[in-house]
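G., the chain you wanted modeled:
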Amino acid sequence: MADKYLDMVNSGFTATLAKKLGLPRPARLRRWSTQTPLLPGPLLVLGSSARAQALSDTLVSWGLDVRRNDAGGAKLGGLILLLDELTHPEQLSPLMLAAGQAVRQLVPGARVVSISRPALATDEPAVAAVRQGIDGAIRSLGRELRAGATANGILLTGDAEADSPSVLAATHFFLSGRSAYVDGQFLQVSGNAGELPESFDAPLAGKVVAVTGAARGIGAAIAATLYRDGATVIVVDMPGASDALSKVANRVSGTALQLDVTAADAGTRIIEHARARHGQLDLVIHNAGITRDKLLANMDAGRWDSVIAVNIASQLRMNEQLLAADLPGLRVVSLASTSGIAGNRGQSNYAASKGGVIGMVRASAEDFAANGGTINAVAPGFIETEMTAKIPLGTRTVARMVLPSLMQGGLPLDVAEAIGFLAWDASQGINGQTLRVCGQSLVGA
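Predicted structure as tokens:
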């Protein structure tokens, strides 16, 4: 949120005045930079698990000052809770109460990450109770944190352990500034596949990615972020957006493909372009989407059908073509929306399409995994775009104040960071998941 209100409440005399008046004071969020450390202070690891030492050793190798179970009086940049071996709700008490004391020592922009296991119908009742209880406790903690701090969780499934590559990748993402607008979220990680990048500054080095809807907004931010992370980028958009598309392509030193994603051969044409110009295709980002909002009572077939055609039917068709091609290890990330989870007034068509994306990635995970690939979705909430910038400042400010925890909208960059993380080789154990980028709010577009 780069506007006058954020500037006013965080600097100079107006910051002091806002504090005295009790006005909401959203913090400047800590975002990723190669020039800043992974965390703004020491990391406290609470709890134990079979791989606790191996995890701690990796965290130290990342340059972190790791404290085990006792941080003394140190100001903390992060907190990890190892909860994967708990079998009864009574065991949660000492760890959460210790975490409560550690929260007092967190600096602005700190991170809390839990590592646990999901509750299953086949679990013993006490085991399922504590595992589901962790979910509620961490989400609640996320709503209590202030000054840009966040709390998220990693769920170990199958034979995944705390030091599995995809668990480490998720841990790095949640601790870093890349997760600035991700709060109160849980990611399931399965297995021990994947390989951590040689450098987290360029985790997509050597990859070729196609981004649809890339001429502006979130799509352009995705292209820029993946390029920053080392990828060769193909930007895709409608022929009518050729000028804007060319500018994005130039900024990311990539190539442009003018293409209507609803074309019957859209997926095939992306593959052909990638192979002809770059020799390979490793990642596809389904970002292209439209809105045609109207109350359902006033909805017509044109509005409904066009949204479904662009936002979900095109992705289904392209995915069939991607799966039919010889693209081992292909990563696909689709744009969903919190509207597809909680609904939104006047967006029954849009919510149906974005809910469809969530269902699609869950049902397609096995097919992509069969060739060493993955498919996941990112569901943005309230993201500051050119469209939201047209809303009057006062109205925007009031709307942000109802957003829990972070009290502000996210940026297109925040969506791009989550997509980039899901595209890492190290994220191979994350498949069929939907990651919300919403500051723990279900307000979205």
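The CA atoms of residues 260 and 332 lie 19 Å apart.

Shout if anything looks off.
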